[in-house]
Each structure stands twice: as structure tokens, then as C-alpha cells.
């Protein structure tokens, strides 16, 4: 279950985050720290691996890049310096088109596509907190994968800056990736 740090300090920044042990995985959501343990399930890892492979194969020779967790995505608000950023997430899959957002620490700014694979301990956070966070950050496409149901919900950012109603897919479906109109994913391959 994702746990927050003891209340000795209520809010943290990326500067604090950089001082924490490297063998621990954490996320900061608006300054609140969440421990990313326990380790993902085998099915979670298989789905993540399949999606990463599909994106990676598609993106060969293209300027976009795909990354799998752990990979820090820093989402600054306003004119925060890197050390003052209060939101650092580690989505399961991240697709970034603008290479200028990439550095040795990960991505600073909004990726183009984010995939979160739910688990009982992250379900609520993925559906509520991260949904609102990713929408506010302007991430073009947000996927929420439900491994136990073999389903996928895809949210597209509208011109008004809000996520549309989800497009829901099951393992029998084929889907076109919104940011790549010529990439078709057979979900049977992802969920098998």
C-alpha cells in the first residue's frame, strides 16, 4: 500500500526527494510523499513490459521516447525551480515527444502520454488524485489499466483543458493510440 511519510513534515519538494535513499521509490503529489511499495504484481509487470515493448518498437527512428517506471516525471507549477517542484510522479509508462523536457533525472514538464496500471493500493490515487493532476498538467492522453478486469480506460485532453469521457477497451479490442494515429494496439497481446 502506498504510504505517506510521518507528519513530522507535511510538505516536501524535489530538493527533499533527492536526499532520500535511492533504493526506495517515492512519489510527491502536491508536496505529499507516498512510498511506492510493495513491488508490482507479476501481471502488472507483464502488462507494463508489453506496452513498453509496443511503444518502443513503434518509436524506433522517431523523435519520441518511451520510459518505464521507475522514471521521475517532475511537474512544476508556475515558475518553480527544479528543487522547489512539489510534484514528482513515476507513472508505469511515459511517452515524451519534446526531448528538451528530458534530462539525466527524468522528465521535467508534461509528457504526452502516461499509463498507470492499477493495483488495490494505487486504485484510488490513480483514479482521483493523478487524474486531476495529469489533467491540470496538460498531459494529452492518460491511460488507466485495470489488470484484474483486462480493461483499459483512455482519457484524451480536450481543447478546453479537461479530460473527455473515457474510451473503454477490453482484451478483445484493437485500439488506435490517440497521439499516434498509425499505431494500432491489439489488447489481446497486452493482456495475454
Q: How would the blueprint of this fold be written?
A:
Blueprint: E1 3-4, H1 14-17, E2 26-29, E3 32-35, H2 42-59, E4 65-68, E5 73-74, E6 88-89, E7 93-96, E8 102-103, E9 106-108, E10 113-117, H3 123-137, E11 141-146, E12 151-156, E13 167-170, E14 174-176, E15 184-186, H4 187-191
Parallel strand pairs: 5-9, 10-11
Antiparallel strand pairs: 1-3, 2-3, 4-7, 5-6, 7-10, 8-9, 11-12, 12-13, 14-15
Protein name: Putative restriction endonuclease domain-containing protein
InterPro entries: Nuclease_put_TT1808, Restrct_endonuc-II-like, Uma2
Domain Putative restriction endonuclease: 16-178
Structure description:
InterPro entries: Nuclease_put_TT1808, Restrct_endonuc-II-like, Uma2. This is Putative restriction endonuclease domain-containing protein. With 192 residues, this protein is α+β, with helices and mostly antiparallel strands. It has one domain (38-71, 89-191): tt1808, chain A, CATH 3.90.1570. The chain is built from 4 helices and 15 strands. The chain has helices at 14-17, 42-59, 123-137, 187-191; strands spanning 3-4, 26-29, 32-35, 65-68, 73-74, 88-89, 93-96, 102-103, 106-108, 113-117, 141-146, 151-156, 167-170, 174-176, 184-186. A 6-stranded mixed sheet has the order 4-7-10-11-12-13, sandwiched between helices. Strand 10, helix 3 (123-137) and strand 11 (141-146) form a beta-alpha-beta unit.
Amino acid at each position: 500500500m502506498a504510504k505517506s511519510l510521518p507528519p513530522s513534515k507535511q510538505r516536501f519538494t524535489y530538493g527533499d526527494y533527492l536526499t532520500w535513499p535511492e533504493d526506495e521509490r517515492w512519489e510527491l503529489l502536491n508536496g505529499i510523499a507516498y512510498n511506492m511499495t510493495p513491488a508490482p504484481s507479476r501481471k502488472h509487470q507483464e502488462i507494463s513490459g508489453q506496452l513498453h515493448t509496443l511503444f518502443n518498437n513503434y518509436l524506433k527512428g522517431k523523435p519520441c521516447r518511451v520510459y518505464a517506471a521507475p522514471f521521475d516525471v517532475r511537474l512544476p507549477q508556475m515558475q518553480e525551480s527544479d528543487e522547489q517542484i512539489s510534484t514528482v510522479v513515476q507513472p508505469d509508462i511515459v511517452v515524451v515527444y519534446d526531448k528538451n523536457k528530458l534530462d539525466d533525472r527524468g522528465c521535467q514538464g508534461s509528457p504526452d502520454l502516461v499509463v498507470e496500471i492499477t493495483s488495490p493500493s494505487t486504485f484510488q490515487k490513480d483514479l482521483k488524485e493523478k487524474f486531476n493532476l495529469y489533467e491540470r498538467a496538460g498531459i494529452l492522453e492518460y491511460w488507466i489499466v485495470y489488470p484484474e478486469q483486462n480493461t483499459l480506460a483512455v482519457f484524451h485532453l480536450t481543447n478546453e483543458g479537461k479530460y473527455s469521457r473515457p474510451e473503454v477497451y477490453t482484451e478483445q479490442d484493437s485500439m488506435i493510440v490517440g497521439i499516434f494515429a498509425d499505431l494500432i494496439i491489439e489488447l489481446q497481446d497486452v493482456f495475454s
